[in-house]
Amino acid sequence: MSDFKIIGNPDPVVGKEEFYSVNTFLPNVLPFQNPVSSNSFEQPVKWEIYILENGRWRKTKENDKTGKRISYTFLQKSLNRKGIRILARRGQDVARLNVTTHPAEKPKIESIELLDKNGQKPAKPLSYGQTLKARAHCLHMEKQKVYVTLWEDDATGAGHNKANEKNLIQTLSGVVANGKADVDFLLRPSFAKIANRSKDEGNIHEYYVTVDFNKEKIASNNVNVHDLEAPVAPYKATTTPKEAEKPSNPTKKDSPKQDASGAKKEKGRINSVNLTDTAGNKIKGTFKEKQIKVWINSTGLKGKDISLKLYDEDVASNDLLFQQEFTLKSDLHAIVVPLDTIPRSLGGNFWTEGAEQELFAEVKVLQANDLKKSEVVDVDAEVFKQDPVEQTNKTAKVGEGEKSGGKNEKKGTCDECTKPITAKQLKDIFPKADSAKLEKVAATYTKYMKDLGMDTCWNKAHLFAQARVESGLSLELKEGEGFNYYYESLSIFKAFQTKEGKEKAKLWGRPTIRPKKPGVSLEDQKKIANWAYSPPAKKAKEIGNTEANDGWNYRGRGLVQVTGKGFYEYCNLYTKKNSLDVVKKPDLIGESIELSILSSMIFFKWKNLNTIANKTHDVVNKICPKVGNDVKIKDEKGKSSSNYIEKQKAFNEVTSEAFKIDNCKWGEKVEIPKTKGKFSTYDNEYSAESKTAYINVIVPKDRRTEGMFVFFDDTEIVQKGYALAMGTVNNNFFERNGKGSTPTGLWSSSYSKTHIGEASYGDYGLIHIDGMTGDAKKATAPGKRDGIAIHSGHTTKVGINDNGPLMVTYGCIRVYNADMKELVENYNKVKGKGKTIYVYVEEVDSMDDVYKDYDMVVDPKDKRRNYSKNAKQ
């Protein structure tokens, strides 16, 4: 076990600088460096911050640091994070520290007001086309984002009223600076249609804004706006904000013309590339729509062919998400790109699947070298096409996979899968290889197999079956694919199948297969590689080659002949963290046996072969096509065969025996026996660890009777009690302001003293919960349900007491008052130990066995309730 750990305060106070260091600085030489080399030196410690969003850890972009001792000052917005994690990396060593921030002083929004664009209170009614400024006055919220909503007022009197909820206009955000957050709303003429939709407002429309804080809406004063038909002087503005956000379209007056003397027109150019929503509005914050619009503002390029590419910006390389070629029809050309057709995995990151992707557009004129890029915008990863099997980390650990298995069962493990590879196993596969080389290969594979998801018997057997054929029985490392082809053989490349390609083949290839002639010169080999794999060859796009010499630079190397710039860039996401840039120095893969095996493992992960390989014997159809083409070769006895056939034979006869795949237990389901007093949820989906605790709410599928809750951490069951998770209406889990039963799934939690003393909530406040997975996540998405909590309250019509059975809520979890008092005390006690408390709601067919497992009996006051649309909380 590594002794590499982070030392520092796990409970920092907002605004206070905290210092962090690691407890050891012993040199950690990479496995493919010579440990006695004079170049061995202590590797730097690199620091990163991750935040938990939607059940996943996302790496922040602005908090990377390097050094033995660094500092972080956490901002006010950190208080709203579901989780914060500090990572320290030194070579292959990784240390993690979860932190929980605490407020220096209680944040507060004192008020919000509406002003004109100059920040003054309007002295007279405004007009459509003018700007309305909302200003929120805040305490202890510096640099925190606030969301402001504009409403048209139909109700009598000031303030927010439910009657106005059909008149929601727009929600925008602003960042607190010097105690205030300003948000500008353009009064578009289309707003007047909303104002007049329900009734005739007359010549004056009334608008106000609200800001949400602590589950409450704080409303501003009302501002009057003239109706469009009102007889007022037109507002004269040079440019409205919306117009400024769109790419400008050159007018005829501004367009270059050819004068009478015959002077040439100005050279065509791309002026700008902009990303907006489909309505043409500038993107602010995180973009969450399924379609995005790309605006191309050009001069003199009408009728020219254009290439549009969308990229996901990354630290080491940019992932191509979308590409399309078309002809410009005007100086201002817009194209809508459906993001929900782009697979999420195309923008994946090797270390973390973030909750956002940084998107930008690149436009290039095909007949010229003119190229422009747009600004980078954040796009919610959920809008992209989700992969069929999405890797999530339910236990909230960076770099660890999803827990598997359904109710009362888990995915079986295999002791052989996780055992280190030995040089003896490899000697059976590569009998002519020297022992020192095999020791290096075994050590390298073992070190990285868990991180790369290559830790099954099947992964090992399939990878080394490929390597046995590609690198031979001596495991000979190929420094680079040779292109010493006879010209007739070049027809295996599509680029050499055209008329021009055939001419190039005769010019560069060896004259004929039959007589032995001098080999192809190095210069001609480069030409062959670039013609086959560089633009404009179709193969170039498939493997990510973009430049003229990429075919040669990124030719096949290593044990499985990894090919193409696209892979080298992906490989770099891992190797560059160890100061090895294989994009700048691709020859490294062909020079080091350790880096060669590592890159082969990364290739299996890149092509998803580490998943496909499990439980498959079909090498020819499932594995080989993702590795390379089928070509004619000699078998080990010198007879004619093919690449695919020999790899299947190697797997069947050699590697499957070496790694005993017939005995592998990977993927087999194993029943988990129920145990009384266990420290996991009833369905075994989540288990408490040193820094986590759970309130497990177990309820019947028929919510009209009670279930129970179990509060536990990693050492004990803290508390048990009865719980009702029934809504007044059972069939609207996901509707905004819905009154359905509490949705199942994992929830985050926070405690507040809200509604203390109110009959519907009791005397002990609320444990607020916010959905993270399953129906819980869907139900609490933006625009859906909110305000769900665990609370107590009246059980009879008069007073706050426990005299009657638990009463129905509007979707919250109801517990008895005596239990709530104890639950709040235990919650704060466990929270004070630095633990994160989750709530997990699950359903069972019957509660009978549940009560038996937890030594409880059915609540004698419980009864079967009825749903009623008119029932009150």
User: Could you name the CATH topology of the largest domain?
Assistant: Lysozyme
CATH architecture of the largest domain: Orthogonal Bundle
Structure annotation, total helices? 18
Percent of residues in helices comes to 10-25%
* Low-pLDDT regions: 25-41, 230-265, 348-355, 387-411, 670-677
The CATH class name of the largest domain reads Mainly Alpha
Largest sheet: 8 strands, mixed
Rounded to the nearest angstrom, the distance between the terminal CA atoms is 53 Å
SS-based structural class?
A: alpha+beta
Rg on CA atoms, Å: 32 Å
Written account of the structure:
With 873 residues, the chain is of the alpha+beta class. It folds into five domains: 6-99, Immunoglobulin-like; 108-237, Immunoglobulin-like, CATH 2.60.40.1930; 270-383, Immunoglobulins (Immunoglobulin-like, Sandwich), CATH 2.60.40.10; 423-481 and 556-663, Lysozyme (Orthogonal Bundle); 692-853, Beta Barrel (L,D-transpeptidase catalytic domain-like). Helix content is 19%, strand content 25%. It has 18 helices and 37 strands. The strands form nine sheets. Strands 32-31-30-37-33-34-35-36 form an eight-stranded mixed β-sheet. Strands 18, 20, 21, 23, 24 and 25 form a six-stranded mixed β-sheet that branches. Strands 3, 4, 5, 7 and 8 form a five-stranded antiparallel β-sheet that branches. Helix 3 crosses helix 4 (435-448), helix 5 packs across helix 15 and helix 10 (565-575) crosses helix 12. The longest helix has 16 residues, at 643-658. It is globular and about 105 Å long. It starts with 5 loop residues before the first strand and ends in a 20-residue tail after the last helix.
